[in-house]
Amino acid sequence: MRKIMVANPKGGSGKSSLAIHLASWFAQNGNPVCLGDLDRQQSSRQWLAQRPLSLRPIKPWDIDETLQEPAPAGCAIAIIDTPAGLHGKSLKRLLAEVDRVVVPVTPSRFDMLASSDFFDELAQIKAVRKERVGVAIVGMRVDLRTQASQQLLEFLQQFELPLVTCIRHAQRYVQAVESGSTLFDSNETAAQDRRQWQPLLEWLQKPCSTAQRLATPEIRRVQR
Ligand SMILES: Nc1ncnc2c1ncn2[C@@H]1O[C@H](COP(=O)(O)OP(=O)(O)O)[C@@H](O)[C@H]1O
Ligand SMILES: [Mg+2]
């Protein structure tokens, strides 16, 4: 089973939103997928409990930090949501178990400061250095017309980790989540929104080493 973890030390950076969108995208594409939630707030878990039975199924996976609990039968992919403040031994232990880490970052000074230490910590972990675990960054709630978003892009350039895409700020993200669904569960989702997710979905499906070397400049094209 492939395990994709969503992590960022800062609360409100979009971890749960990213985790549930990934889970529902895989479900929509016919992949047997489960969703584990390590955060005590259990946002993803609660979202899953509200998910209408008419939508493609996502199974809950009851986990702790060891990720050793048996996954629901037949699942090929697991998405793992994590709490704010993840670092040190807990982070290392999880990295020994997962295949990919996706890090959402918003264009906020506080988010960037918190992420900076996290990126440095990630870069020092052997599994990341050796490219056994692929790490990618996703800009969340980004509007490239704003100065804050441009500052985010500049800030991210100092790290070797690839920024694979930026997701815009839109009320529809908030509304979909309230009803146990995501943008991927709706036929009415704007093509622009689907386009913004596409590079991340492609990155997740590529072999790890090539996936790591994706370049940042693609972002500007994606946003147009
Ligand atoms: N692209 C987006 N547009 C608008 N609001 C968003 C978007 N992504 C996330 N949000 C909102 O931002 C808030 C924080 O996101 P959340 O996923 O709960 O972060 P975390 O899990 O890191 O604490 C939530 O209210 C969520 O609905
Ligand atoms: Mg959360």
From TrEMBL:
InterPro entries: CobQ/CobB/MinD/ParA_Nub-bd_dom, DNA_Partitioning_ATPase, P-loop_NTPase. CDD domains: ParAB_family. SUPFAM superfamilies: P-loop containing nucleoside triphosphate hydrolases. This is ParA family protein. Pfam families: CbiA (PF01656). Residues 4-182 form the CobQ/CobB/MinD/ParA nucleotide binding domain.
